[in-house]
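Lecture 7, part 2: worked example. A protein chain together with iron/sulfur cluster.
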Amino acid sequence: MSAPTYDLGKLHGGMRLPANKLASTHDPIRKMPLPAQLILPIAQHVGDPALPIVAIGEQVLKGQLIAEPGGKLSAPVHASSSGTIVAIEPWPVSRRYGDKAPCIVIDCDGEDRAIASVTDQPAWESLSANELLARILQGGIVGLGGAVFPTAQKLMQALSCELKYLILNGVECEPYISCDDMLMREYSAEVLGGARILMHALGLDLCYVVVESDKPQALRRLGEQLALLGDARIVLKQVPTIYPSGGEDQLVQLVTNLEVPSGGLPTDVGCLVQNVGTAAAIYDWIVQGKPLLSRITTVTGDGVVHPMNVEARIGTLVADIVRFAGGYTEHARQLIIGGPMTGKAMSTDLVPLVKASNCVLVLSATPSIGAKSPCIRCGDCAAVCPVQLLPQQLYRYSCADDEKKLRLHGLTDCIECGCCDLVCPSHIPLTAEFRVAKARIREQADEKARAERARFRFEARNQRMETEQRAREQQLAQQRDTARQAGPAEIAAILQRKQQQQDGD
Ligand code: SF4
Ligand code: SF4
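Predicted complex, written out as structure tokens:
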């Protein structure tokens, strides 16, 4: 077994938080039985929503494409089991912005019949980068670490850069969440298999698989698997347990000591980061022909009877998942999809598990937040910010709706980790304010782009009308010239044609 290495760069800020992961990692991953109904949002990824290609009443099979990519940045959606399409309608969802989204609803027939082509795939070593990317797109694979960026497009962008390293992110630093830890323990072969496919697609010879020091079992399993594989291009790295070292830019800095520039991407410094779950999903699809139809999610917290990790079909209701984990305790008070730092508090459990859902957290009490008071300029928020921002300043600019200064001071680099909130003695809801400000800036940018497109269309129309008018005038002038140069017989013929035209009108 190869020993993990420790030569790490330094992360600015961050915090050591109570992990709260033991309760959900006692037992192996449990497979959830098929639910009676699956609710599949058509927008489970960053970019344009997918476009439904099925009709109500249609019978579908497991793995069948039911919504195709709706734009250049998009991903398809597949039926997670066989059954009948009973609705295509808005449904409550757990995404951060907006409460409802169009979903395709399947009444499962319980037979779980798969389409034939899903079990018939060519060997990945024989595929070119473009062929692999096309297949990864077909599999509906998106970043499973929470960003849900369509993987094929991310790889496509990376191929245009000078890459040095592939980094597999097994740093699951947010408290309570343990699905990646359990995945690395139980599916280490799939994780490393995915790494090899990605290296082949990207033409890379070095991959770091990065895991935090508080996951000894995952480190051991990966090390053993790596020894079996004997692939010296894959290096296991252990990093200290600090939140939020799992952020892409933070991880790049920790592992390579390279700093991703403000507003830039890890590929700007030669790194491509993929979550370990995404790597395993790529292996499952490319090698075993299984599109992304299920995921491992942690269901935990002191509001759940038996905290655990479950493998559930995409589209399963959170209510069913909690029931499978023994139901709510009598003290359950708050439901969060995601972790306590970056998750979303929900008012209903009738929301579907989506590709991004890494955790269902049920807490017995809503954390008490002290009354907000004015900023005392202690600077604690800046000290913990992993992006080296000045949260107190950003907050001021956000309250004043000063977009220019917000951009200038790096709001768009904020990873919404919540560290500044945790340390603020004045209980100022900094992260919530930044989320709203970022959404506002995005909306303004969209609005600007829409106005720009409308202006372009208006100018193009005017130009076309002017060109047509000029052509008509030229034609008229030519006709007049012809008439001027014509003899009496030709004039008579022209007049007769004109008369016939008028009679016809
Ligand atoms: S939420 Fe944003 S501003 Fe606050 S610490 Fe995290 S990255 Fe910095
Ligand atoms: S931690 Fe709170 S009180 Fe201290 S500087 Fe930041 S915003 Fe102000």
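The chain has three domains: 22-299, 300-363, 373-505. Residues 375-381, 391-392, 423-426, 428 surround iron/sulfur cluster (ligand 2) (CB under 6 Å). Keep this in mind for problem set question 3.
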